[in-house]
Amino acid sequence: MNTIKIKGMSCQHCVASTTQALQGLDGINNVVVDLDKGEAHYEGNVSLDTIKAAIKKIGFEVE
């Protein structure tokens, strides 16, 4: 399972938005977003740049 650190999430709506954005990428599966740790865990072989772009598009920063 891969992990990416995300800055700016503060509520369950943020978790839902991030989950939806990542699940919308072809090749990403089993997305779990941890609000307390500021992390998203996922399976798949999608480039980090693609993942960062999807997260930035919804208004969050990637560490």
TrEMBL record:
Residues 1-63 form the HMA domain. GO terms for molecular function: metal ion binding. SUPFAM superfamilies: HMA, heavy metal-associated domain (SSF55008). It comes from the Bacteria. Pfam families: HMA. Keywords: Metal-binding. Gene3D superfamilies: 3.30.70.100. This is Heavy-metal-associated domain-containing protein. It comes from Candidatus Desulfobia pelagia.
